Amino acid sequence: MPETLTVYPIQAPVHDGPFDLIETILDGLADAELQLQDGDVLAVSSKYAAIAAGRIYKLDDIEASPRARQLAERYNMSAAVAQLVLDEADHVFGGIGQGFLLTARSGIISPNAGLDRSNIPSGQVVLLPEDPFKGAEAIFEALQQRLGRHIGVILTDSWLLPGRYGTGGIALGVAGFKPIKDERGKDDLFGNPMAVTQVGVADSLAACAQVVMGERDQARPFALLRGADIELTRDRYSAADLSIPWQQCIYVESLTLGLLPDGASQCRAGQIDGDSQG
C-alpha cells in the first residue's frame, strides 16, 4: 500500500517588510507541534519569501517609461505596474484589457511577471523572489544544517491555468528532491509504452499545499507534506529543469507560430471542425 499523503498547514505572523525567514519557519513548526522528518516536503509561499527578502516596492516611487505608459493605456493598467512588469519579465507576449500582460519570468508563463498586490498594504507590490531556485536551495541548506534532516523544499505560488477559471499551485523553485518523474519508455496498464509523459511532482505537491495554505487572510504561508512519493537528491535545479522550451510547448507554439492558416478555431467546446464528438 502506498503511504498516505498528509498536508499540514502552518501559520505564521503577517509581515510587510524584511524578516528572518528561517527563524519564522522554525517557530511556525514549533507552534504547530510538528517536527521535520526525512522525506518531508516543506512548501513555502514565494510571496512570503519575497517579503522576507525585501522584494517590495511602493508604486508611487516607480517612474514609468514611455513604453510603460503606452502599455498601461492600451491594457488599462497602472503605468507603475507596467514598468515593473517590463523590468521583471524575460519576455512579454501581449496582454488583455483587464490590466494584465502575459509574460515569461524565471521559466514560468504568467500574468504581470508574478507581481502581486494582494495581502500587502495598499499602494505596494511584491515581486517574485529574485531567483526562486536559489531561494529554495538556501532554505533547504539552512534547515538541513539546523535540523539534520533531508527534506524537500518548494517555493510555491498560485497561478492561472490556460483556459480555466481559478488558480492552482505551481512550484517556482525546488530543492532536495527530483521535481520531475520521467515515465517515458515505461508501459501503461495495457502494455503500451509511454511516449511523452513526465510527471510534474513538484507542481503536483505545490497544488496540494496551496489548498491548505489559502489565498486570502488565512496567514498560512507554509505547509508540510508528509508521505509524498519523492526521490530525495542533493542535485541542484534551475528553471531549465522544469520549463519546457517554447518550441515544444503546446500552448506557446500553437498560439504564436503554430496558428492554423485561417486563425483560431471558432467551434464550440466538445466539437472539432464542426463535427460533434458526443
Distance between the termini: 38 Å
Q: What spatial order of strands do you see in the largest sheet?
A: 1-12-2-8-9
**Share of helix, binned:** 25-40%
Please, what is the CATH homologous superfamily of the largest domain? Answer: CofE-like
- Named at the architecture level, the CATH assignment of the largest domain is 2-Layer Sandwich
The major beta sheet can be summarized as: 5 strands, mixed
Structural class: alpha+beta
Structural description of this entry:
- This protein has 278 residues and is an alpha+beta fold.
- The protein folds into 2 domains: 1-54 and 129-265, 60s Ribosomal Protein L30, Chain: A (2-Layer Sandwich), CATH 3.30.1330; 56-127, CofE-like domain (CofE-like fold, Alpha-Beta Complex).
- Helix content is 26%, strand content 23%.
- The chain has 7 helices and 14 strands.
- The strands form 5 sheets. Strands 1-12-2-8-9 form a 5-stranded mixed beta sheet.
- Strand 8 (152-160) and strand 9 form a beta hairpin.
- Helix 3 packs across helix 4.
- The longest helix has 16 residues, at 132-147.
- The model is unreliable at 267-278 (pLDDT under 50).
Properties at a glance:
2 domains, 7 helices, alpha+beta, CofE-like fold, 26% helix, 14 strands, single chain, globular, 278 residues, disordered C terminus, 60s Ribosomal Protein L30, Chain: A
Short description:
The protein has helices at 21-31, 46-52, 66-75, 79-88, 132-147, 201-213, 250-255, and strands at 6-10, 41-45, 56-58, 91-96, 100-105, 108-111, 124-126, 152-160, 167-175, 180-182, 198-200, 222-226, 271-272, 275-276.
